Amino acid sequence: MTKVFFDASVIFSAIYSIKGGSRKLTDLVKRNNITGITTQTVIEELEDNIGKFKTREINLKQFITENNFIVREKIKESEAKSFLEIVHAKDAHILTGAILTRSDYLVTLDKRHLDNPSVKAKISKVKIVSPKELLELLI
Amino acid sequence: MTKQVAQTQEEWLRVLTKGMVTIPKAWREDLGFEKGKMIKAKKFANKIIIEPVEKPVPYRIYSQKELNRFIKDDILPKKLVLKIDRKLTKLKQ
């Protein structure tokens, strides 16, 4: 089964936009069509970002559990060290998580820091894609 | 990648005033024990274990504008939505 690593931007959009590509991906995870993976660090990042959207009460942990996500333990500083030359320190945990969990794809909506040609050129162990690109590949 | 084999190393240390001991330099360097850095000590029966504390990795706090942009960029073309919905319906059955 295809292993897909979800970053905070995609889980965030899946929660707040029912019709978006991210939600379609989490629906595929829920139906065991793909394996959805994230880390405890991504969940912490989400918790801190979700606070800005106070329009809806969100139970993040429930969302992660109900959608059958596999959650890896927190990324350690020593594990993220080797990615500091490729991305900003704040984004290194994402690449680390995707590679350590041996995911096939890293799905992100963050074009500025992750889904851009400069990062993609330096990463060969995981394919960085947007939800739309991944859905086109899967469907 | 080099495989690290855990090997027990032993040293005799002298306890100074107020229980101070000097951890051998090589061990300090190996474990990243730097001056002023916090380390964790645990006491089990007649043993004390001192270990480095992993600092949590930093992560990104997005601006409201960036979060709104994610939702906007996540909108799919109608044709693709129809295809995915068909697949999802099949998977439900």
The CATH H-level homologous superfamily of chain A: 5'-nuclease
H/I helix tally of chain B: 3
Structural class of chain A: alpha/beta
**Number of continuous helical runs of chain A:** 8
Query: How many domains in all of chain A?
Result: 1
- What is the helix content of chain B? 25-40%
Distance between the termini of chain B: 46 Å
Give the class-level CATH name of chain A. Answer: Alpha Beta
- What is the number of beta strands of chain A? 5
Walk me through what this model shows.
The complex is a heterodimer of chains A (139) and B (93). With 139 residues, chain A is of the alpha/beta class. Chain A has a single domain, classed as Rossmann fold (3-Layer(aba) Sandwich), CATH 3.40.50.1010. Chain A has helices at residues 8-16, 21-30, 40-50, 60-66, 77-80, 92-100, 117-122, 131-138; strands at residues 3-6, 35-39, 70-72, 105-107, 127-129. In chain A, strands 3-2-1-4-5 form a 5-stranded parallel β-sheet, sandwiched between helices. In chain A, β4 (105-107), α7 (117-122) and β5 (127-129) form a beta-alpha-beta unit. With 93 residues, chain B is an alpha+beta fold. Helices cover 34% and strands 13% of the residues of chain B. Chain B has a two-stranded antiparallel sheet. In chain B, a hairpin with a 2-residue loop joins β1 and β2 (47-52). The two termini of chain B are 46 Å apart. The mean pLDDT of chain B is 87. Chains A and B meet through α1, α2, α3, α5 and α6 of A and α2 and α3 of B.
What secondary-structure arrangement, pairings included, does this model have?
The complex is a heterodimer of chains A (139) and B (93).
Chain A: E1 3-6, H1 8-16, H2 21-30, E2 35-39, H3 40-50, H4 60-66, E3 70-72, H5 77-80, H6 92-100, E4 105-107, H7 117-122, E5 127-129, H8 131-138
Parallel strand pairs in A: 1-2, 1-4, 2-3, 4-5
Chain B: H1 25-31, E1 39-44, E2 47-52, H2 64-73, H3 78-92
